[in-house]
Fold these 3 entries.
Entry 1:
Amino acid sequence: MAKLCLLPSSPTDTRNPKVLPEHLIKIKTPAKVKAKIKAEIKANQRQSKASRAYKERPTMKSIGAETLKTIAKGMNAGYIYVDKDGIIGDFSDLAKEILGIKTLGHQKHDAGQIEPGDIVIFADNDLGNDDMMRPEDLECLNIKDKGISQGDIVLAIGRYKDKSSKPVYKTFGAYVPEPLITLQTKLDSLEISVSLDCESRNIKITVANESYCMDYLESVGHLVVLDGKTKEIKFFQAKGYGYRGEEAGELLRGKSYQAKNLNDENSELVPTVGMSARRVLRGEEFQEELEALLNSEDGTEIQKVLEIYRRWMLVKMIRIKKGTKDDGVYIFIRDRELVQKAAKAGAVLKEKIENASRLTAYRDEMQEIEFLKNIVGNSIKMQKVKQLAYKAANTRFNVIITGESGTGKTKLAREIHSIKGENTPFVTVACNAIAPSLIESELFGYVPGAFTGADSKGKKGFFEEANGGTIFLDEIGEIPPEMQIKLLNVLQDKRIYRVGSTKPIDIDVRVITASNRNLEEEVEKGNFRQDLYYRINVFPIALPPLRERKKDLSLLAESILKNLLSAYGMDEKKFSQEAMDLITAYDWPGNVRELENIIERAITLCDGTNIYAEHLMITKPEAQGISLKARIEAGEKKIIEEVLIKHNGNRKKAMQELELSKSVFYDKIKRYGIELE
């Protein structure tokens, strides 16, 4: 059958969970507490960086457990209390629902196992990434399509281990023109439909007008099973399948599943209160954060998006010490589905926010969601960039953006500026395009008669032009050494002197810099001042090259194509599958700038609707010439990725199987650009 591909798309809900809003609650800190906090931080400046990081936000010392539970209820957040020994002491019903420990609603099923002849309905937006599925597992539905590979989208309906039955299925690779994918059939008089909505991040399976929905953040497999004889529902996937051990791949390979009961905790699951939090709340980073908090100071808090049993949720944790009573960590969790619904609520939500002070954090969430629309990319590396960019936009710290030429440093700088300074100036300075003899007068301006050829009226410099807004110093590494000290003084004193003048001019400018050079190496060589480097490197953001974020290529290409067609007033055009395959396979040494130029040339050459490979005029990867070293490295990368998939992302097990030390393992991960999820 024809193989199509999927364009990941969700402007408000990107594939990487960690860029989602982190705010859960905001509570004002008393002045006395603030003073004490400052004193403690000052007294412990020599502590390790990690320890200091957890001391930066101590705010909740005076708040008791009951108050926090009340706040959680008002926020519609799940509440969990973990005592100082790491034992769960309280676990709200909403927290159990979010984690899938408790199943609510009218849908239920008994414990059992998938048996030959059962009708299996399966949908996966990223085969094998979240559900332990393998392409060969689909053979149990009589699907023997060798074109299906790891990471594909699969919608399938078939009979389990029935070789006489003909399945109905669709598969998609890296690109598909429509955000909504559907599959429909009639089996044994039953109307069955499957839909995957890439924009709302939802998979819905409908059987005889009964729908079973599964929302997802990045990837998910959704499974519904009907009894082959009675046609009754035997099993459906639900929240907390990680906790239940109900990954689709394992179930199709013969593993039993547990019961889902009506408005009651699953009796087959162990109780949560009195158990170790490490056993119940599994997630590597979550456990690290929890452990750090248990060993931290009273009042310490963190808030971020964390993974618990392979489900991403907004988490806020607060350390409170009350002697022997209420001594522990207080955890608030919110399902990302709630955030998505909040984003869609629009004006209704804003009205609620005005009337509920505890929910003011939603304002930031909505703003962040809107901001993230302007930065294209769903890969893990780009999600980290987005997260840092949003945080940077909400400060006045100096930001430095590093990355290869053409990665989009100027665009990112403009986005950081625009979120808070939309109506203020944004001035871009290409430091490598200014002659060394002119750079001082260009940056700081000059007075009349300052030098031969000077304008008789004098001239404002770039810093004056940017006053009240942002100045972006692109390729700052090209500034001559004699100018670096003057720039340092400007950054420290917040004032400039025009060339030929002794009168200072006060400025209020946010400085963003960029460089494709390694400035640390330039400092070591003596080409760049160390003190200036420290001054500009307050908030670093590293933009990855396109070859390290291949998952973004289809989405990025589509976005560029759309913008170019609009700019030139051209009729609609689209990429052929062959063209898109070539785009996603090419390494793009010139990064986004090269991609834009190639697409711009392609739409000029293309007379019809479809853009074909020949319009791109780029060399196929296999024809570029691959060295022995490159082939060996490619083989190593593939093996590491396969072993990580095999062990469901467990790094320790992967290291053990590969017989690699921790340092060597992570060195290869970094070198090959392997994304750890």
Entry 2:
Amino acid sequence: MGKLVEKIAKLQNYEEFADLNWTGSFEDYLKIVRENPTVTRTSFQRVYDMVLSYGSETYSDNKKKLIHYNFFDDPMGDGRDSIFGLDIPLMRLVNVLKSAAMGYGTEKRVLLLHGPVGSSKSTIARLLKKGLEGYSRSNAGALYTYEWNLPEALLHITGGEDVFRCPMNEEPLRLIPAAWRESAFADLGLHQEDRPLKIKGDLNPACRLIFRELMNHYKGDWAKVMEHVRVKRLVLSEKDRVGIGTFQPKDEKNQDSTELTGDINYKKIALFGSDSDPRAFNFDGEFNVANRGIIEFIEILKLDVAFLYDLLGATQEHKIKPKKFPQTDIDEVIIGHTNEAEYRKLLNNEFMEALRDRTIKVDIPYITRLKEELKIYRKDFSQRRVAGKHIAPHTLNMAAMWAVLTRLEEPKKHDLSMLQKLKLYDGKTLPGFTQDNVKELRKETIREGMDGISPRYVQDKISNALVSQRSESSINPFLVLNELESGLNRNSLITNEELRKRYTELLAVVKQEYEEIVKNEVQRAISADEQAIKRLASNYIDNVKAYTQKEKVKNPYTGQDEEPDERLMRSIESKIDIPESRKDDFRREIMNYIGALAVEGKTFSYDTNERLHRALEQKLFEDQKDTIKLTSLVSNAIDKETQEKIAVVKERMIRDFGYNEESATDVLNYVASIFARGDSRE
């Protein structure tokens, strides 16, 4: 063996390999069950325990207690399939799993994830499948199956095979005849207090035949039959088609129920002499494959009616009916997903009434909270993943804002704008609104989150902007917003002209919001002279102190005592909308705050009061903007002094706000044009 191969070989975990490939006698397995009865869990119990195994966090949202299950952060895949902003629907899903695990009836239902396109339905199903695979490889999630090992004298029973694996990976305890099980479990002390050991169902047809033949051979001596049983660790794997099944409907001409329940192996008919001999049957349908685990039905409501009976039996009775064989017991979680259009068809199809009755629908809506929607795009378009292009600040934020706005319903009360409603949902505070108001807003909606723009559409348009030739080194919000707008005319999901108009109007709302944000940023960059702000803050506090204590202020230049500078104080207070009638209250509030800090031995700093800090920045900006002559950028008539000042502002934009050279220049030019428009109006 070469050195390079040896180096790679050192990466192998031999202990893990031995654990996952464990084999032992039936006696050995009974000892394992006695020590750890959880190895015998049903599929629902295992899936529920798997979700819980990753932990959870409880938090409060608008006075409502919510649980965030860490499993849906996709810790198995480093967050690639993370689910954001859907804690409430996921809580409902986990509650269904819990009820099924407890045997309260929901284990006899199809779990139907229902929602608009791109709402994470298939991602949730994929996470559950992937999670169950990983869980089966852990000690906590271990499960077992068995195979038959026969001597040469008995090979005729299996058609010449000395090892015949259980084709449906059944629980080994099913080998104990049903009539004995309860007594056997009690005698062996296998019951748990919270979960009594219950092994339901019989052997599959092939194993049942082998078991019967061996019982006949040994004249009913069950213990001797068990000597031919080899129990082994079962590792679930979608790729290997073990315990994880996926079914996707095809066109009606190509649909065949054998894809679900298996088919006859015609090559073996000659060996066993009959097409009804279970040993001549391939137990390779998706229901067979998914036994002990989970089966996903992609677009389940596109199933042909011919499949309906197989699905109903599998759901309600936990049985399937393979061709020419008796009903066969299965144990698996059946999860499907469908979009709105297909679900409406189900409601209107009388032939599907039985399916509706056996379905638990879990709505998976779009995200309606901005910060959660933003996480999707930050994950997909992080600077690490986007090579060679800088994403200007607010680009992803504005795209996410528009997406969320399209999903919100118009507020019925409170005289709110859509943008204000979005901000309230996002946890922002607005004067006169409480948490109770936000709860009321959510309650008055009917279908909020079930309509609107899909994250996929936004992702596609951001991708278009990134490969566009219109920007050399960066993309900005306007580039992306223009992509979003131009795509509306070509979006096949938007068939309503009125809806297209609404989405376009919401883009205008977002553009206006972006304008305010960048104006603010440029203002802050211009006024980011810390010493100047400190001087202004100190001057303001001196005047406020004198005003509240009815004293005079010493002029630093003349040394004369003067009346507090009312014009200066109001020029600052007006920036944060403090009316004349409330100026005394605000000034006393500031002084009380300074006094409280002093009692604690702390010194007041202007940046500890957000409102005052903002007012000082705006005042400084007003004082300095004329000296910088930002509007001259529009005319390109820039003298050397102004050029130097603008260069300083640009450097602050890059340093403090995350712009690069190109995007900072674009923003300054854009804000300059806004000021130029304002000047011309004046």
Entry 3:
Amino acid sequence: MNYRNTFIVAACAATTCLFNSLSAFGVEAETIEAIEVVGHHNSLLITAEIDLSQSSTPDMRGQLQTLPGLHINGNGAISGVLQYRGLFGDRMRINIDGAEIAGAGPNAMDSPLSHVMGTLYQQVTLHQGIAPVSVGAETIAGALEVDEYQFAINSQDTWQTQGGLTGQVSHNDNRAISALLFSSANNRYISVSADVQKAENYVSGDGDIVPSTFYERAAIKLKAGLQHAQHRFDITLGKRDTNASGTPALAMDILFVDALWYRLSHQYQYNDQWLVQTQMFGNHNEHDMNNFTLRTAPMPTMFRLNAVTSDALGIESKAMYEVANKEFEIGAEVFQRDHSSFISNPNNSQFFINNFNDIERDRISAYIQYSQNLATWDWEAGVRLSQVNQKTQAVSTNMAMMNPNVKALQSNFNNAERDLDFSLIDVVTKVNIPLDKNMTVHLSAGVKERAPTYSELFTWFPLGVSAGLADGRNYIGNLELDKETAYKLDVGLTMSDVDWSFVSRVFYSQIDDYIVGMPSTNISANNIAMMNGIPNPLQWNNTDATLAGFDTHMAIQLTNHWALHSTIEYVRGKYTSSDSLNQSMEQDLYRLAPLTGSVRVVYGFDKWQWQVNLRAVAAQNKVAEGQNETPTSGYGLLNTSIEYELNEQLSFTLLAENLLEKQYADHLAGINRVREASIPMGAKLPGAGRNIGLFAQYQF
């Protein structure tokens, strides 16, 4: 038996951990908004209420980066791509209100985070470490859930109404308003939420206007449901419209993204032991972008308009059986996605690139999971099997008639096998071993697999479709890609007492056939790049990679009024490449966040709360030479806020971000692609300078 098989057997036989109800890191809820670590399905979760007053970022990146291990790849102000422990994009499962979102933009312009409502009562749940199989398929990085708070349904005849209203303004020209209304009676409810967000280009610490960082969008969401006997029915219908919004690290800006999503769910509590849940969900997105309306236009011959559409439909069902100290869960899902992309030039009716032509990505998946709480330890084991099929129609472009290199790319793609199947396995085992009442050891192992994305497979013409990397490079797909297979280990320690807690995890992943962009060997694609005077594209290829690191969170309630939180996280990655002599060599993995730490001090007294947050980021010198990645300098940011609670309903928060007006560029920030701006083309986009804002919140 080889080591991979041994690993799979060990994963199936071995371990993970339940950490039972460590609450709020040992701090009082009325004193501080805290992260909560809770036990569920024998898996360690980290949940946090989204506090809108603590960051002006519209896609919640400021709030999410307080969770250990999470970082954001920056495309634009509303287009952040989540990275967890060095893995990003479609390797991370993000569920919004219980549903998986399929964005329209092939370059993550409308990433899953861009679909989140900015209203009150949002809660995020991070499945720390290795995600259980019950969360979903293709969770090679992990899983994050964003949900609206679930109000209790009133059983009385009289309607009871709850809700809230928030408003935010800042001197950096951020404006936002959000509202939520929930009303229920007779075991029925209806809920309405809405938000509007708008901002102009922000200014860096050095006073430079950062181009195409403006945005404008609005959303509305309707929910209704009823509880009847052992049944509960819920329906959700949402719409988010993004209007003129910039994406400075991408080749085009957003003209509009019209997104519609829905979810129908049914829950049946058969008896005290059996619970059955079924849902159908889907979304439809229409997305237009161009390079000439919202930024300095190129020559008319280089005007580009990209019209993109996507549709998704999913059906999931699961049954859970719980008795005494045992829990059993079985489930299945079907998820289907369609994508199309068409590029044109309004100044030339003859020009077109049929970039993605009616792509279908179908996934069928089923799983089984079992957990048990024993006298001295707890364990969980699960297996998920998935089948992914991807196919696309033939592509075309008018350039094929004029350029033999383009014709070769088109012909080779159309004559190749474009109906591809991938069989995936997901095996996770976890164990939790309490050493005493204050200390628990967590062990987990798993095998995770992911099929390539449609952009990694079907980008037949070299374009800036970088899967959310926003690195300024052109990419070309690869129909010969294999699936990624990750062998993962995670070891953790939790210690806690009444007024303090410590949570630390060490992780290691070996990924076979990791998909990364490598210098293209496609002669036709390279010739096109040479004729256009740009670097050769990167082509998606399989290689072997390893990632290892740690993340730690500590919280202490120092006194009745003072609390301290700190987080530190680090990840290092390597992958195997070949030199000009076809000799194997190791390189640093592309686009990894450097060592990062934060300290947050909170003082609460009477109706006042004061917070000071210091975030320190080390220099990143471990860069991928094969992708021409450049090092970045370290930096520190100081944020502070003062909150005053006028009464139980109304509060005000004065927020100061980057108080010292530090000039910095995050390593995961995108590369500027906007001409004639104060930020040079090809330079890393700097973060925002000092921003003073006022946040008001009313709840009833």
